[in-house]
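Exercise: predict the fold of this chain.
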Amino acid sequence: MSTYETMPFHLGTERLILRPWAESDAADFSALLAERGKETPTVERIRTAIEELLTATETTGIALLPIERRDEGDFIGYCGLIIGRSSAEEPEIAYELFQRAHGRGYATEAARAVLDAAAATGRKRIWATVGAWNAPSLRVLEKLGFERDHVSTEDNGEVVWLTRSLP
């Protein structure tokens, strides 16, 4: 079993609430993924994905969490920790927001809360992987104190690997 504490699954910031997934998030999550410009996943497929996320959370003690704006109460994206290309000991931070929410500091704000939650688990290092083309996301990670580690090439292009030590 893990030697790490379970990550808090309810996080709050001045403007945002991060909380566990609910079945009612499926339509918004599907719409968010559709903004990637590929196919739109069905709401039923997203419901299954949410179940898989919740099961993974029970197993790993880390979570990818929906983000809501506190005042508006609307779903604007997700942020959290995943195994991804890394490990349960040194997970990846992941985030994605609706385009309408870009440029307002929400990703940085949510990610700061997630980094604090990661530190509370006892972990010492977090990874991030980002497409080399994604300058806005790289800026967010730079603001959060991530440093470039290396670059790999995957089917969809270059991926920048970054890391950040936790207190």
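Check your answer against the key: The CA atoms of residues 30 and 41 lie 6 Å apart.
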